[in-house]
Amino acid sequence: MRKTIKNAKIVLGVSAGIAVYKAVEILRLLVKEGADVRVVMSANASKFVTPLTFEALSGNPVYHSLFDSHNSAQMEHIRVAENADLLVVAPATASMLGKMAHGLADDALSNLHLAFKGSVLVAPAMNDGMWEHPAVKKNIDILRSRGVDFVDPAFGELACGVTGPGRLAEPSAILDKVRSYFNQRDDLNGIRFLITAGPTHEPLDPVRYLSNPSSGKMGYAVAEQAKARGAKVVLISGPTYLKAPPGVDIKTCKRADEMNVLVQEHLDHCDVLVMSAAVGDFAPQTLEKEKIKKQGDAGLVLKMVPTKDILLEVAKRNSGKLVVGFAAESQNIVESALEKLKKKNLDLIVANDISAPGIGFQSDSNQVTIIDREEKIENIPLKPKREIADLLLDRILVRLKNPK
Ligand code: CTP
Known about the structure:
This protein has helices spanning 20-32, 51-58, 73-83, 94-102, 108-115, 128-131, 134-145, 171-179, 217-228, 256-267, 310-317, 333-343, 385-401; strands spanning 9-14, 36-41, 62-63, 86-92, 119-124, 149-150, 154-157, 163-167, 192-197, 202-205, 208-210, 232-237, 249-252, 272-275, 282-284, 304-306, 322-329, 348-353, 365-372, 377-384. It is of the alpha/beta class. Strand 1 (9-14), helix 1 and strand 2 (36-41) form a beta-alpha-beta unit. The chain is globular, with a radius of gyration of 23 Å. The structure holds cytidine-5'-triphosphate.
């Protein structure tokens, strides 16, 4: 029987930090899905939220100390570890990542981690300087190389008052990732996807570039879901903070013209092209070798030239591939998207309103309109990007099965 989240046994490992309050919400979401959740806390986590809160919400005992439990807590940890399907460590502090990477076991959570043989998902949370420290990066590399999966922290306001990367990912994003371990389909088995994601950088000089706020999250979600459903995925990514989904073949680039070369190179080897990258339309005509200096009060006039339109280049090749475009619009969403669909000879276009707050660029959720070649319009309400990705993959699959 395929395991579903409804009958899953999940251990939620909570390590210390201000983000512990979000672990309460993660627990609530998991319980709501029907999972049987056991909470294990590191020694200091209970200073932020008491074990009683987790106990009440999970309906199970909480393990938080190696020494003070009634019946040998350590043995109990081992039993919990043996029975669980997934260990989710959220929030994971820099210290907990270090312990996990190096096999230390000096509290209930690090003990359980060592005894656990199943899949491990980690959602780190820390100060931006710590997140970018080479020691932390190295520990994350070690864990990744062991197959540990991550929900990377978000960019935003941190407990220390600064804004940067390090904020625990939203509980809904962590739940999405947990869901992906269960209820798996393999309906895209053998289908080859070429997916682009993220912004492009068009340099002016060695220290400056023109870009846009695309985070790449939508394209990465499509790549991750396609892979999870059995597809073979090549992901061409502009510069982003995101980590390549496991099993996806990633090619990175910076400039629009570099992305074009990669797409044209890989096009013959795919069945479906999904162009979700926010490709820069213009690049500076000249790239200065040296940093452009201020000239007193004088402004700077830039001469820009158009970049190659990658989808138009694909259309010219008449490749016979199923091609999906995206349309970032701030007005006349459907009309403008329809125009692009026709001009770029697309099978599907996914339009989103970039002027609406809380959706589109940077956000974990999106609200889109999918339009097909036959001009059928489907409005998709606000959903996590992962769910939008799955929905889009469903539409792609229908078209692959019934070519028009
Ligand atoms: N696109 C592309 N090459 C470009 C620019 C965009 O292939 N140089 C693709 C995008 O990846 C997207 C689609 O074209 O799938 C529409 O992109 P969008 O930026 O919405 O529209 P543009 O065609 O650039 O037109 P405009 O910016 O004028 O709306």
